[in-house]
Amino acid sequence: MGVLHSADLRKHEVEALLHLNEGELDDLLQEAEDFPQGRPEHLDAFQRARGETAHVQWDGGAVYVWAATSRRFCDYGAVLRNPALRSRTFAPGKWIGFQPTSQGPATDWETDLGVIRILHTTRRAAATAMAEELYEVADAQGVVTVCALFGDIGSTGPALIAADTAQPQLAYEAQWGTVTKLVGQRLPWWPNLLRRADVISQWSPGAPVTIAELLPEEEEATLLEAAGPWHGLPEVRTALTDLANSLRNECIDSVNRDIRVFSEHGAGQDGVPLLVAAHHPTDGYPLPRTDDRDLLTRGWQALASSQLFEAYEPLSIVMRRDPTLLPFGARTEVSDHTPAARQWATQLRPCAPSALHAVLADDAQDVTFHMDFSTGTPVVRIRSAGRRVWIFLAPLQLPYRRAQLRSVILNDTVWVSTTDRRIHPAPCTPGDHLWWGYGAGDHPTEAAWVIAQLMDDLSAGVTLADHWSQAPKGLTKLLSRSHQPGTELSRTALELARAQ
After folding, report:
1. Beta strands in 232-352 (DSSP E)
2. In this predicted model, what pLDDT tens digit does every residue of 34-82 receive, in sequence order?
3. Strands 114-119 and 143-154, how do they pair?
4. What is the Cα 340 distance to its own chain's centre?
5. Diameter of the chain measured on Cα atoms
6. 286 vs 26: CA distance, rounded Å
7. Nearest to residue 161, comparing CAs of 195, 118, 196?
8. CA angle at residue 42 from 39 to 48, to 5 degrees?
9. Residue 85 to residues 11, 75, 80, 114, 273, Cα–Cα distance (Å)
């Protein structure tokens, strides 16, 4: 089901958990071959220098589950892992109600074992935190066990992590089917993005499925808010609204996918389907998108060149979500002291920063702003202690100057030297990168295919689609070798490699 972390216990703590006298654990370890394996605790360098001893420790959750399966220690073990629960008959449980808790929305159920609280969250360690909180309350509000969702599917329904209020730190895996048997009815389940207090609080046994709208995610809200000031540029408003709608549609798809997967695979062993307690409305969805890619590109180009503060956040979002909407390639960072970078720097011109410059600079302090006007590429130079770099978005196409590729230089990225004595970073599409050398089984077909296209037409709009099959094998083999930084490969060498 995944990785579950529980408290580690030393020898005396294991003895306290199992109500053993001092020293009795040694005898138990001899008798019980299936007892969880202990391991030496980790000591850092300072502890070792002080001569501290590494004590043996045990995974507390594993010991707690083992105790539940042992006849002798079952009363001290994990409440929901006692094998006797499978054969016992229980009186039907009772739904107590919705509980707004510090760890998220919860529902409480009265059972023969006591109150079981189900946290409808996958937040890490939520069950342990809630159980610890209840441990400090008189009678723990009657709660014996807290369960939280793990985010996966177990053998009898959604996977659960449990923590008992008697031993809050000892988290363990629990079965949805076990809790269902204890409460005597189907348990409600909500898809991740609808696990909100205002949605879950509407449920009660027998209630109809709640139809609930998704709340806007932060990025969606930012884009819609930013669209307001751009009345005079409809292409900008369209670009912002289209991406916001795309993000909303992705969230709706996520809800529907959660429901589909958990409905198909989350049924109990008796075949009873999972009770999905909420859905997203279907009317009016998915939200409309525009098919005019050129219109979107013009809108994002206007934002990229804008110096308005309102353009910064939308550009940060599009860089994360869909950088192909910008008329630029992959984000690239190169050292500023290599010969290739120094030569390229002479072709750049200082400029006032645009919103896209600000995105590239992030929160760096010592920054200057530049443009490569031949390709329209925004460039920032960062010079701080231990870091002197150029950061830019690679071009998608080199300018047409009646020149040809003269050589390529391998240093931080692939540099293209031309017959008219200029130098450019090689074009590279968003999401890709140009590399060379041994790739642990992979081959630098991206760089080989870009170079091959530029050898045929320096101003070609390069594509990396199907680069693994399109790249000439000879060029790929040449670039697969180990090359020293700054290696220059002449056109003659490239042509010879391509011909092989």
Report:
1. 275-276, 278-279, 331-335, 349-350
2. 999 988 878 777 877 787 777 889 999 999 999 999 999 999 999 999 9
3. parallel
4. 36
5. 90
6. 64
7. 118
8. 125
9. 29, 13, 8, 14, 22
pLDDT in tens, 94-136: 999 999 999 999 999 999 999 999 999 999 899 999 999 999 9
Please return the burial class of 96, using the count of CB atoms within 10 Å of its CB with bins 0-12, 13-18 and 19+: middle
- Letter for the amino acid at 45? A
Could you tell me the two tokens for 384?
A: 């701080």
CA distance 436 to 476: 9
How far apart CA 434 and CA 414 sit, in angstroms, is: 7
Q: What are 82's two structure tokens? A: 């006692």
Q: Are 56 and 10 in contact (CB under 8 A)?
A: yes
Token pair 């509980």 is found at 99
- Spatial separation of the C-alpha atoms in residues 204 and 107, rounded to whole Å: 10
User: Contact 161/127 with Cβ under 8 angstroms?
Assistant: yes
Whether the Cβ atoms of residue 410 and residue 487 lie closer than 8 Å to each other: yes
Overall size of the chain counted in residues: 500
384 touches 364 (CB < 8 A): yes
Number of H helices, E strands in the chain: 18, 22
Task: Tell me the per-residue pLDDT of 214-265, one tens digit each, with 9 for 90 and over.
Answer: 999 999 999 999 998 776 789 999 999 999 999 999 999 999 999 999 998 8
Q: Residue 217 and residue 250: Cα distance in Å, rounded?
A: 11
| Residue listed under structure tokens 């009657």 | 142
Q: Which residues pair with 487 in a beta bridge?
A: 410
The token duo for 415 is 């540099």
Under DSSP, is residue 69 helix (H, G, I), strand (E, B) or coil? Answer: helix
Query: Which pTM value belongs to this model?
Result: 0.81
If residue 50 lies in a helix (H) or strand (E), which one and from where to where? none
Per DSSP bridges, beta strands 405-411 and 413-418 are antiparallel
Closest CA to 106 of 160, 38, 157: 160
pLDDT tens-digit series, residues 422-477: 999 999 999 899 999 987 667 899 999 999 999 999 999 988 988 999 999 999 99
Assess contact for 132 and 116: CB atoms under 8 A: no
Scan for tokens 């530029």, then name that residue. Answer: 454
